[in-house]
Amino acid sequence: KNFVIKDGLIGFKGYSIIKQFGTELDNALYRETYDATASSISKYRQVCDQLTDISNAVSPPIKRHIEATWLCYANTMRCLYGWYANLYEAKQYYDNRQSQETIDALLRACELLETLLAYRTCAEYGKFQNWYRGDLKINVQQLLTDTKRLLGRTAF
Predict the structure, then answer these.
(1) Interatomic CA distance for residues 74 and 141, integer angstroms
(2) How far apart are CA 92 and CA 98, in angstroms?
(3) Which of 71, 75, 94, 148 is 20 to 30 Å apart from 131, CA to CA?
(4) Please, which pLDDT band fits residue 152 given cuts at 50, 70 and 90?
(5) Residue 64: what pLDDT?
(6) d(CA 43, CA 2)
(7) pLDDT (tens digit per residue) in 80-136
(8) How far is the C-alpha of 116 from the C-alpha of 44, rounded, in Å?
(9) SS (HEC) of 54-86
(10) Are 15 and 143 in contact (CB under 8 A)?
(11) CA distance 9 to 96
């Protein structure tokens, strides 16, 4: 399947929201991305569930391959899309001066990035050991740090 929005692009758009969190956004541009990602999250969850069922029904070497390739990428997209959706919602709450809702959305966004960082280690084995060590394309660890930093800016 083709992904609605590629992982690097979703990381870039989310980072743009983070950088402009306290200012006015071109909402139409970010809303379009939000609509595309939010409607896809449940589909990725279904794909992850189906791949998990398949991987549990096969031998260990095939299971590892399914988890490290297909499931890892589907999970990556599910978590990134969820992070972006929660980040966008947090910005909307922030603009409407809804502190608790902003905090809750940012915490959910952070949880998804933490889930992604923990899960993707399943793909790091053999010649792919430390594969994500130099993650510059998306830089999930930096997105998590920057998202957490926003939590300190949510009080009015």
Answers:
(1) 19
(2) 9
(3) 148
(4) confident
(5) 86
(6) 12
(7) 999 999 999 999 999 999 999 999 999 999 999 999 988 877 665 555 545 555 555
(8) 13
(9) HHHCCCHHHHHHHHHHHHHHHHHHHHHHHHHHH
(10) yes
(11) 27
Q: What is the pLDDT of residue 2?
A: 46
**d(Cα 156, Cα 116) in Å, to the nearest integer?**
31
What is residue 118's predicted lDDT score, i.e. its pLDDT? 87
| CA pair distance 151, 35, nearest whole angstrom | 24
- Render 106-139 in DSSP notation, one character per residue: HHHHHHHHHHHHHHGGGG--GGGTTTTTT--SS-
Nearest to 27 by CA among 17, 41, 12, 37: 17
pTM of the model: 0.85
| Consecutive H or E run containing 8 | helix 7-19
83 closest CA partner among 40, 116, 112, 43:
112
Q: What is the DSSP string of 132-147?
A: TTT--SS-HHHHHHHH
Per the listing, tokens 């490290």 go with 68
Per-residue confidence band for 68, with pLDDT thresholds at 50, 70 and 90 = confident
